[in-house]
Amino acid sequence: MDIRRENVLKAIAERFATFSNVVTIQNKAGFNDINKSAERLFIDVLNIAYNLRLRDMNSIQDNYPAIDLADYSSKLCIQVTSESTNQKFRSTVAKFKDKQLDREFDSLMFLIISNKDLCTLSDDKIETSVINLNDLYKKISTLEDRDVFYIDSYLSENLVSRVEQSDSILPSGLMTTYSTPIPDAFIAFLGLENESEYIKLLLGDIKSLAQIISNLTKNQREYLFYVVAQGQFATDMYGHQDENNVVMPTNQVAQAFGDYGHQIFQVLKAQDLLFVNEEYDPHGDDRYITVLEPYFRGELDETNLFCAIKRFCNSDINKLRRILLECDFSCLA
User: Is 131 helix (H, G, I), strand (E, B) or coil?
Assistant: First the structure.
């Protein structure tokens, strides 16, 4: 095994072990807020490990019944919990059936984030599984290097000890590095292989974008990633797509991020990374809606880099995540 990979896997194992112990001890002391934080924390990790597109169901409805995360395309839902008792299993499955969630999802998974013994019950009507962080680690250990390294980087940034937090006054983005190798695959995707002048402009634009993104805080990058990843290419009244323009309704963003998201938006707007279009008419019938448009246009004329990168990633959320959240542009090479 590669030395770097081995060291990274050891680091992930240590983080999971520490986290599960902290959860167990805090729960015994009556502190349960960490359980709620874990729901969002593990979305990215689970998405990469199991190739899912999970959503935080509590962002759709507060205290969503029975489940915390869900992937509608694979019909899998997950409850993230520190409890692993038979009673917890039975009550969750009962609520799952009572709310008729079995009509939308085929499989219910429990992710146990404490170090308690796993429940061994099953249900004869719905497919269930119970895993813990040890199982999740085993799955991560089978992934490709780039995914393992991303998960390690993500956990190192988000699983920070309250005791050992950095005393730096800089936003985390200013303390990170970013990678901008020659993006040969991206150049070919844009059809610029024989256009040396355009390639020079593109390289400058990518470098500028990488520097801007690296200077954002983690939450600002997450907000931007959400809009680019979950947004749709704009359409005109004839249904034709404008692949140089991504739009997302402002009410969708507000539902996902709440009041705090408005503060982040103001920062991104001030940096000319997001624009508000109050007259988006998707159906050509004068029923206007207000949308956000992620936008980065540099020296390369008529190329919105956010849109070009989204098209290049072609629904590969993990690849887009590495670019916009980790400032890792190596996957364009």
Answer: strand
Q: Give residue-wise pLDDT tens across range 106-157.
A: 999 999 999 888 888 888 889 999 999 999 999 999 999 888 988 988 888 7
- Alpha-helical (H) ranges within 124-249 are 133-140, 145-158, 184-189, 196-214, 218-230
Burial class (CB in 10 A: 0-12, 13-18, 19+), 315: exposed
H/E stretch holding 77 reads strand 76-81
> What DSSP designation does 60 have?
T
Q: Taking a C-beta distance cutoff of 8 angstroms, is the pair 223, 231 a contact?
A: no
Residue 8 has pLDDT above 80, yes or no: yes
Q: Is 289 helix (H, G, I), strand (E, B) or coil?
A: strand
What is the residue whose two structure tokens read 């019944």?
65
Whole-number Cα distances in Å, 181 to 64, 246, 262, 285, 321: 43, 26, 34, 45, 17
Cα maximum dimension of the chain = 66
The mean pLDDT value for 196-216 works out to 89
Which phi and psi (to 5°) does residue 241 adopt?
-85, 140
Burial class (CB in 10 A: 0-12, 13-18, 19+), 203: middle
Query: pLDDT tens digits for 62-102?
Result: 788 999 999 999 999 999 999 988 999 999 999 999 999 99
